[in-house]
Each structure stands twice: as C-alpha cells, then as structure tokens.
Design brief:
Layout lengths: L2 H62 L4 H21 L3 H14 L1 H34 L1 H4 L1
C-alpha cells in the first residue's frame, strides 16, 4: 500500500465514522424530542384534568348554596361551569390552543381583558389559599408558634 492509498483509506474511514456518529446523534436527539413531547403532553393533560375537576367542585359548591334568586343565578352559573368543565375534559389540548389562538386573533381586546381577569382571579385565589394556610398553622400550632 502506498502512502497516498493509506491516506485516502484513513480519510474515507474518518468520513464514514463521522457520518455514522452524526446519524446516531440525530436519532438520539429525535428520540429525546419525542420523549420530551410526550411528557409535556401528559403533564398538560393532567393539568387540564385538574382544572376540570376544580370546575366541577366549584359547580357543586355553587349548587349547594341555593335558596332564592341568587341561588337560581348560582345554579345557572354552576351549570355553565360544569358544562365548560366537562367540555374541557373531553377536548384535546391542541384544539384548546387552536381555539384560543383563533379567539385572540378575532377579538384581541377581549382576549387581553380575559387574560387580565384570569390573572387577577388566579392571584386572589393564590392569596386566599396562602391566608388559609397561615390560619391552619395558627390553629394547629397555636398562636405562640406563629409569633
């Protein structure tokens, strides 16, 4: 074997090895992407189900406070929340996202207002939850432990 032939053989071997490594790396990246996508989808579905369950609990709570006109209004709201929660449970995440995008494009002002309202509601809910946690701590540990 001449020096030139040996050099060409080494170059070809290096090229082949590099291509095999590139292909294997690409396949590993594709597999990782698929695993991450599936995990994200599963977590989003879990979150969607949790919101749906919370909506159904809210609907039940609203229904239990029935006595007068206010109670009838609460029942109508509760039924709407329950219907929306059930629809949420049976709608795919992709369909929800596409519908939200269409609504935001058609009604940008309403979308921004709704997002702001949802943010305020979430903040109040979280603040109320943390206040209840503090009260529970006082009740369990006594007022001295909280001072």
């Amino acid at each position: 074997m001449t020096q030139e032939t040996l050099s060409k053989t080494v170059k070809d071997t290096v090229k082949e090895t590099a291509q095999v490594a590139k292909d294997e790396l690409s396949q590993a990246a594709d597999r990782a992407k698929d695993v991450l996508r599936a995990e994200a989808q599963a977590r989003a579905e879990t979150g969607k189900d949790m919101v749906s369950d919370q909506g159904l609990r809210l609907a039940d709570s609203l229904r239990s406070d029935a006595d007068d006109l206010q109670s009838r209004i609460q029942n109508v709201v509760a039924s709407s929340v329950a219907d929306l929660s059930e629809e949420l449970r049976h709608t795919s995440l992709t369909t929800l996202i596409e519908g939200t995008e269409r609504f935001a494009r058609r009604n940008p002002g309403a979308f921004v207002a709704g997002a702001a309202l949802a943010g305020f509601a979430l903040a109040r809910f979280l603040r109320a939850s943390s206040v209840n946690d503090d009260e529970d701590t006082v009740l369990i540990a006594g007022p001295e432990a909280h001072s």
